[in-house]
Structures are given as C-alpha cells and as structure tokens.
Amino acid sequence: MNADGATHTIPGLLKNAFPPLLAGIVLLVAWELAIWYFSLPNFVLPRPGDIVLAAAEHPHAFLADTGATLLEAVTGYVIGAVLGVGLAVLFVALPVFERTVMPVYVTFNSVPMIAYGPLAIIWFGIGSMSKIVLILISVSYIVLLNALAGLRSCDAGTVELLRTFGASRKEIFRKLRIPSATPWIFSGLRVAVVQAMILAVVLEMLGANSGLGWAIYRSTQMMDFIEAWVAVAGSVLASLILYSIVTVVGRRIAWW
Amino acid sequence: MNAEVRPQSIAAQLVVVPLLLVVWEGCVRVLGVSADKLPAPTVILEVIWELRVSLAGAVGTTLLEAVIGLIAGTIFGILSGIVFSRSRIIERMFLPYFVGSQAVPILAFGAIIIMWFGNGIASKAVIAFYLSFFPVAVNTLSGMRSVGQDEIGLLRTFGASSWTILFKLQLPAALPAILTAVRLGASLALIGAIVGEWFGATQGLGAVLLTAMYEYRIDYLWAGIVLTGVTGVVMYGAVSFIQNRIAWWHAEA
C-alpha cells in the first residue's frame, strides 16, 4: 500500500505527516469559525473540544459502548476470517465444493449485507449474536474471495516444477500456495475489518442493548447531537485502531 | 489486489441458483417450516406481487435517493480528483483523509446527517453522496496519474493547453478507474439510502425492512431483502453497462 520508503525515517515521517496534519488544523479552525460565524448552537454542531469533554464526562458509558461494539466486530471478524481461509483451501483442494457452494455464497452476498439486518435481529435476537452472525458471513466472503485469488496467484510453471521434484500436493500447499496467498489474504483482511465495524455499528442502530450504534440511534431519537458525535467519533477511532493492528500484523507476517 | 468473483462462478450461478430455490421450496414444504420462520420462495413472490404497488414505490424512493447521491458524488468526486491532480500541496494535505475514510465506518455519520437535514429524500441523498464521493475522488486521481509524462509532453509540444490535455488525455485515461469507483459507489449509495431510512422514514426499502421487523412479518421482510438485492444488481449492472459502452477501450474485469 505504502510503497514510499521515506516513511520509515523520522524526517520522512515528518515530511509525509506534515501536510495532512496541517489540513487537520485547517479543518478544525474552519469548524470553529463556522460555529462562530454562523453562531451555530452547540446542539447543531458541537465544538471538537466539547465532544471530547462529553466523552470524558461519562467515561464508563462510552467505554462500555465501545467495548460492546468491538467485541461483536472482533468475534465475528476472527471466526469469519478463519472460515474464509478454510473455505478457500477446501475449494482449491476439492474444486467440486467451489462449483456447488460458491454460487450460493455469491448469491447470498449479492444483496447488501445490511438488508439482512432486520432478519438477523428476528432470528437471533437483539443481543450480540445477530451482529456476530452477519459479520462472520460478510467477513468470510471477503476473505474467501481474496484467499481464492491468492491461492491461484502462483504460476502454474512453479507448481509443475515443484511437482517434478516430487513435492506432494500438501507440500505445494504449505510451501508455495499459502505463502503466495498471504499478501492477498491480508489485503482482504484489511477491507474486512472495516466491514466488520460498519456492520456492528449499523446493526446496533437497528436494535441492541449496548454498543456505539445503539448510542447513535438513541441520541438521534432524543436529538442529542453531542452524544451522537461522541459515539460516531468512538466508532471512527475504534475502527482506525483495528485497521492499524491488522495492517501492522500483515506487514510483520507477509513482509515479502 | 482486488479479488472479484470469477466468471465461471457467475455462470455456475445460473445452474445452482434455480436448484437452490427448488431445494429451499421443497424443504420448507416437506419439513413444514412455518412461514414465520422461513417462507418459501413462492410465498415471497406472492407477497411481492400482492404488494407490488407499494413495494414499487419503496424501490422508487430508495433508488431516487441513491441515484441523486451517486450522481452528485460522482461529479464532485471527479472535480476533487482534478483539483488533486493540479495541486500537489492540496493532494498531500487532503488525500490522506480521503483514503483514510475507507478505513472507518463513515456510514455512522449518517445519523448526524439525518439530524441536520431532516427525514426527507435530501438527507439520504446526502449520505449516498458522501459515501460515493470519496472512492470516486481517489480513483479519478490515480487514473489521471496513470498517464505518462511522455504523452503529456508530446501533446504540449503540439501546443495543447492544459485544458485540452485534461479533457483529451487525462480524463479519458482515468475513465475506467472512475467507473470502477462509481460501481463501488453505487453499492455504497444504496446502503447509505437504506440505513438513512432506518431513522424514522416512512418511505423506501429501509422503511419496508424496518416495518416488517417491528411487525414481525417475515414474508414481507424477505420481499424487502429480495427487492434490495434486485435494486443493487440493477444499479451495479447499469454502471457496468455504461462502463462497457463508453470505456470499451479498457475492458476491465
């Protein structure tokens, strides 16, 4: 993603980070100016500082909501990722499964996953189960598509070469297919982690007992802008943290 | 490294999906699954037919919201891509935020948009707008950057103005990338419109799904799911059609 070698040195980091930081400051100043110039009341557009203060005022509620959303997202994500990679290996090893199972998967996933939200709530209740089920289906599909493409990305010539040297199918899988699929899988895992967070938050808006999406829904019903901003900011931060973790782990494991 | 569904899988769908529907229908009938757990496909079709007028209205509303947002998002996305390509400093300041928007659930901001713009069509169109806007801007820029300096230099020696270079060279070169982003934007716009409708709208597919959930009408809920899928496929298909028509020189899977 970031092929810029300069990012790894401190001056390089500064050079790359300075313009977006400047833009951030410009945006914050514009935000403050808009509030002052249009004399926007606090409930329409709260000051950035007020959002932080509001979150700090009820840290327990904020942390509990963030924790609930993260728990759903991460649980569904981990199960989905394992399922996706497992299915991809199965499909490549036994193509008959791909021909029968894959079309069903594709059909199911051609409907935007959020449309199944109300059904999941009815089938699995308003607790975390409904969110985890949809997240794991969606994540497994994204990871499956990427893992399949990755497992096939090694060229046929290399496979033949290993085979002439007497490598078994299993060895070819372990030594060639899996390593060449790893960057692809991580590329899918990065997309999927955002999808997991989106689904967790959006499904909580439909019905939940806790979580950031639930907080967002509750606050819009009461027209509580600050509370809504706190929850939205929380979901953005939580997602960025998860995304960074996946990216860093990906770089460590798939460094080639 | 974007994995897409292989054409073979799509062809296999033509066989497997009808089979799946038959098995689904058979299982529900033979095992006597009650319709409030899982309705048979024929029951779902019946509901869609019975309520065709109101459901067509729901599809129309959601489609209108999503398409208005998508068109606005595409126009502003292309314009910002052009601005980025013209100004290195603006690009370096703001592009990271555009790229970063894809790592966060910006759909969550939809709730604030609803509070600002009320419960009509406008608020959903705004959500659809900003969701499609970011990918189009990013892809416009990368598409325009795919043009080599040699080509630009050549046109310049022939006395082409920078506007001519933009319209005759850079934008046509960027078109396939732009349309790929619009295709993604179409899915995002539909999702944005539906989620926006969950905040108290009375019209649209999102409202259908929500009403069905509250009233526990599983067959009606499935009708909403099927129509959402169909709407999504139609929007995606329309963009792919345009892509094949006007960007035929760069047939991209």
Look at the structure and give the mean pLDDT of chain A.
Answer: 87
Radius of gyration of chain B: 22 Å
* Binned strand content of chain A: under 5%
Q: What's the helical proportion of residues of chain B?
A: over 70%
**If you average the pLDDT of chain B, what whole number results?**
89
The number of distinct helices of chain B, counting runs of at least 4 residues, comes to 10
Which range does the strand content of chain B fall in? under 5%
Q: What string gives the helices and strands of chain B in order?
A: HHHHHHHHHH
Class computed from helices, strands and strand pairing of chain A: mainly alpha
Low-confidence stretches of chain A: 1-7
What structural keywords apply?
heterodimer; A: 256 residues; 10 helices; 0% strand; B: 253 residues; mainly alpha
Layout of helices and strands, plus pairs?
The complex is a heterodimer of chains A (256) and B (253).
Chain A: H1 10-37, H2 48-57, H3 59-93, H4 95-109, H5 117-124, H6 128-151, H7 156-164, H8 169-206, H9 212-221, H10 225-253
Helix pairs in contact in A: 2-10, 3-4, 3-6, 3-8, 3-9, 3-10, 5-6, 6-8, 8-9, 8-10, 9-10
Chain B: H1 7-31, H2 41-50, H3 52-86, H4 88-100, H5 110-117, H6 121-145, H7 149-157, H8 162-197, H9 205-214, H10 218-246
Helix pairs in contact in B: 2-10, 3-4, 3-6, 3-8, 3-9, 5-6, 6-8, 8-10, 9-10
Can you offer a commentary on this structure?
The complex is a heterodimer of chains A (256) and B (253). Chain A is mainly alpha-helical and 256 residues long. Chain A has 10 helices and no strands. Chain B is 79% helix and 0% strand. In chain B, α3 packs parallel to α6 and α9 (205-214) packs antiparallel against α10 (218-246).
Briefly summarize what is shown.
The complex is a heterodimer of chains A (256) and B (253). Chain A has helices spanning 10-37, 48-57, 59-93, 95-109, 117-124, 128-151, 156-164, 169-206, 212-221, 225-253.
